[in-house]
Design a protein that fits this description.
Largest sheet: 6 strands, parallel
Strand content: 15-25%
Distance between the termini: 49 Å
Radius of gyration: 22 Å
Number of strands: 21
Length: 428
């Protein structure tokens, strides 16, 4: 028996798919890269943006003929989009050949639901119970591993559908996380990324996220400890000190600012100001001078003026982000922002994001040039004709073919750049 999984969206969805793969392997299924060969096809979905949702429905529709030719094939739609209000009704009406619809709270029931389908039933469950499954994840890469520490979100940003499809915040027990990470390191993993919609909202009894980072950093292994995503309102001095005093924590922080104008931030329900964000960055750079900061930025939020867009550009220039993930505002049905008046026209949004991207390209190129001549410890994440390694601040370095082995740490001198990419040579 074979399974095929198509994953859409962020690292959290990738991690969820690893859990689904583990379940399917326990059920006796083998992975295939051919959807035609599969006995079970799973679409692990994302609905953060309408474009992603449209693409998913297109991929589901493309299997209608195959399902008719192979009616015993079990077709599953799971994850965030499955939890969204109205999805089940739409699938029942327009895609009745789908056998299983499971929201984020029901992923652990996949094998049980497959058995129901084999008995002639269909399963529709859009639950969003926010809970972290046991460690049944199937990880194929022996270098990098994702570890979920908190699910759900309590922030309720007005543009975001995540709290409605992943539920409220629920943290895993502190000791369970430490034990899982220790086990992974004993197996030879060299990079661990802690996952959560807002990792620094983590709480377990008296332990907060900084306490968790300190405990993991103290494990007797040489590795890189990463995490995403952080919310600026929870990123305080304790977090900054923890990074500065660590030996294994990555000197890279993903800190989404979203916008630079206080009025827009208030409309987004982000709960911080431009001054607060810039102050946090200033303290972080003072304690960790080599910190690399990345961010998310949304342009064209309802009623955003040209001057307020310039406030966002000002943040980009002041912070000097290593990278930004930029988006134009796309209303998501079911969120408060979708009902806001003052929508910005598409040409204006496109012009603003074009300006933003051009500004960031200049900044990223300059940051890369500043690394030339420096020697950094790097972790090899891909070996062969195309050899890639990562710096402690999570920048990718291109190396000569077969210069390093997967999972190897080595000193690398940055000798050149290509746009914002780094080119290195192994230090003998």
């Amino acid at each position: 028996m074979f399974y095929y999984i198509d994953t859409f969206g962020c690292q959290m969805n990738v991690h969820d798919s690893q859990g689904l793969e583990g379940l399917l392997a326990m059920g006796g299924y083998q992975k295939t890269e051919s959807v035609e060969q599969a006995d079970v096809v799973v679409f692990n979905t994302c609905c953060v943006r309408q474009s992603a949702e449209n693409r998913i429905y297109g991929n589901i529709g493309a299997l209608k003929i195959l399902k008719k030719q192979k009616p015993e094939m079990i077709l599953c739609v799971v994850g965030c989009m499955a939890s969204k209000t109205g999805t089940i009704a739409k699938i029942q009406k327009s895609y009745p050949f789908v056998d299983i619809v499971l929201g984020t709270g029901g992923l652990g029931r996949l094998l049980e639901c497959i058995n129901f389908v084999k008995q002639g039933q269909k399963v529709y469950d859009n639950s969003v119970e926010s809970r972290v499954q046991e460690d049944y994840y199937l990880r194929e890469n022996g270098v990098s591993a994702y570890v979920s520490i908190i699910q759900g979100c309590d922030k309720f940003c007005t543009y975001c559908i995540v709290p409605y499809v992943r539920g409220r915040e629920s943290s895993r027990p502190f000791e369970d996380i430490v034990q899982e990470c220790s086990n992974l390191l004993q197996k030879g993993y060299k990079e661990i990324t802690l996952l959560g919609q807002n990792v620094n909202s983590y709480r377990d009894q008296t332990n907060d996220f900084a306490d968790l980072l300190r405990a993991l950093d103290a494990l007797p292994f040489h590795f890189i400890l990463k995490y995403m995503t952080s919310h600026p309102i929870d990123f305080g001095d304790k977090m900054i000190d923890t990074i500065a005093e660590s030996k294994n924590i990555s000197h890279s922080v993903h800190l989404p600012v979203q916008a630079g104008a206080d009025r827009i931030l208030q409309l987004m329900n982000r709960k911080y100001t431009k001054e607060h964000y810039l102050s946090s960055v200033k303290r972080l750079r003072h304690k960790v001078p080599d910190i690399s900061i990345t961010t998310d930025i949304m342009v064209g939020f309802p009623t955003e003026t040209h001057e307020e867009f310039l406030d966002t550009l000002d943040v980009v220039r002041q912070v000097q982000f290593s990278n930004i993930f930029s988006f134009v505002f796309s209303p998501r049905e079911g969120t408060p922002a979708a009902k806001m008046e003052g929508k910005i026209d598409l040409p204006t949004k496109r012009e603003r994001i074009k300006t933003l991207i051009q500004e960031q390209e200049i900044i990223a190129t300059n940051i890369a040039k500043q690394a030339v001549g420096k020697t950094m410890e790097c972790l090899c994440t891909q070996s062969g004709e195309k050899t890639l390694a990562k710096t402690r601040d999570d920048r990718v370095v291109m190396l000569p073919a077969h210069a390093m082995q997967m999972g190897e740490f080595a000193q690398v001198k940055i000798v050149d750049t290509k746009n914002s990419s780094l080119i290195g040579q192994l230090v003998k």
